[in-house]
Design goal:
By secondary structure, the chain is mainly α. The protein has helices spanning 3-45, 49-66, 71-90, 96-102, 106-115, 121-129, 137-148, 152-163, 168-188, 194-199, 214-223, 227-234, 245-260, 262-281, 287-326. The longest helix has 43 residues, at 3-45.
Length: 328
C-alpha cells in the first residue's frame, strides 16, 4: 500500500469513526429526551405504560453515554431516575376507578391487629395520645418529620458525595434501587393506607374511633390556601402504601450515613425511628408497611455486594460507549 493509499484509508477510517460516534451520541440524547418526555406526555398521547416505563428506565444510562462524568451529570442521572420513579408511582392512579377496584384494604388491617394485640397500632396511639379536633405540639413535630422526608433520601446521597465521594456510585445505586423496587409493588399490590381505610369505614373499631389524618388537618392550618396545590404535587397515588418507601429509604439513608461516620449515622437512625413513629401515629402507614419497607431496605443492602460484578460489567459497557461518543 502506497503512502497516499494509507492516508486515504486513515481518513476514511476516521470519518467512519466520527459518523459512528455522532450516531451513538445522537441516539443517546434521543433516549434521554424520550425518557423525559414520555412520562410527562403519557396521558395526552395515551402512551402504553410499558413504553413510558421503558423510556424512563433507559434515560439515565443514555445520559451516561451522551456526556462525560461530572458532578452535574451525577446529579442529572439521579434526577432522571427519580423522574421515572415519580411517574411510575403515579401511573396506577391515572385510572382511579380501576385502581380502586384492585386495591387491597383488609390484609394490612388484619396483620396490624395482631401486631397491636387486637387493636391496630395507629388507633391505639391516637386514642392514647391525641385529642379530637386539635393537633398538639408533639403531633406537629411528627408532621414536620414526615414533610422533611422529601429531602432525606437525596440529602443522604449528597452527604456521601460530599464526605466520601468514592462511595457515591454504590450509595446512589442502593438508594434508588429501593425507590424503583418499591414502585414494582405499588403496581402489583396496590394497598390502602390507614387514613384511606378509615375514610371508607374499614378501620373503625367502635363508634367515634375513626383514625384521623393529622397531616391533612395540620397542613390545611399551616399552609392555608397553598395546601391544595402542595398536596396535589406530592399525593399522586393515595393507594401506594405497601411497602412504606418513606421508611425504606430513611433506613437506607441511615445506613449510608452510618458508613460515613458514627455521628451522622446516629442522626440518620434517630430520624428513621422518629419517622417510623410518625407514619404509624399519623395514619399514613400501617406497622406492617414499615416492616415491609425495612425488609426491602435490608434486602437491597444485603444484595448490593453480590450485584457488584454485574454493575462493573455494565459500567464498562457504558464507559466504552461514552468513549466512542466522545470522539465526535
Amino acid at each position: 500500500m502506497s503512502r497516499g493509499d494509507g492516508r486515504a484509508y486513515a481518513q476514511t477510517y476516521t470519518q467512519r469513526a466520527l459518523r459512528v460516534s455522532r450516531a451513538i451520541r445522537a441516539t443517546a440524547w434521543a433516549c434521554v429526551a424520550a425518557g423525559v418526555a414520555a412520562p410527562a406526555l403519557r396521558r395526552r398521547l395515551a402512551l402504553p405504560p410499558e413504553a413510558v416505563l421503558g423510556a424512563a428506565a433507559i434515560a439515565p444510562a443514555a445520559l451516561c453515554i451522551a456526556t462525560r462524568r461530572t458532578l452535574g451529570r451525577d446529579v442529572a442521572v439521579c434526577a432522571l431516575n427519580m423522574w421515572g420513579y415519580v411517574h411510575a408511582y403515579e401511573m396506577p392512579n391515572d385510572d382511579p376507578q380501576r385502581l380502586a377496584a384492585r386495591v387491597r384494604v383488609g390484609y394490612p388491617i388484619a396483620i396490624d391487629r395482631v401486631l397491636g394485640l387486637g387493636t391496630p397500632p395507629t388507633l391505639r396511639l391516637q386514642r392514647r395520645l391525641s385529642a379530637p379536633g386539635r393537633v398538639n405540639r408533639f403531633e406537629r413535630v411528627l408532621v414536620w418529620c414526615h414533610w422533611v422526608w422529601f429531602l432525606v433520601p437525596h440529602g443522604s446521597v449528597a452527604y456521601v458525595r460530599w464526605r466520601r465521594p468514592e462511595r457515591l456510585p454504590s450509595a446512589a445505586a442502593r438508594m434508588y434501587a429501593v425507590f424503583d423496587l418499591g414502585a414494582v409493588f405499588y403496581w402489583a399490590i396496590p394497598t390502602a393506607p390507614p387514613w384511606w381505610a378509615a375514610q371508607h369505614g374499614r378501620l373503625d373499631d367502635a363508634p367515634g374511633t375513626q383514625a384521623r389524618r393529622m397531616m391533612l388537618e395540620y397542613g390545611e392550618q399551616f399552609w392555608g390556601d397553598r395546601w391544595g396545590a402542595l398536596y396535589d404535587v406530592f399525593g399522586g397515588n393515595p393507594l401506594a402504601a405497601m411497602p412504606s418507601l418513606h421508611f425504606a429509604t430513611s433506613v437506607t439513608a441511615a445506613h449510608l450515613m452510618s458508613e460515613v461516620g458514627p455521628v451522622s449515622g446516629t442522626i440518620g437512625w434517630a430520624y428513621a425511628l422518629t419517622l417510623g413513629l410518625a407514619l404509624v401515629y399519623l395514619g399514613e402507614h400501617y406497622a406492617i408497611d414499615l416492616i415491609a419497607g425495612l425488609a426491602l431496605a435490608e434486602t437491597v443492602r444485603g444484595a448490593a455486594p453480590r450485584a457488584v460484578p454485574l454493575a462493573r460489567q455494565l459500567s464498562r459497557v457504558l464507559q466504552a460507549l461514552e468513549a466512542r461518543a466522545a470522539t465526535a
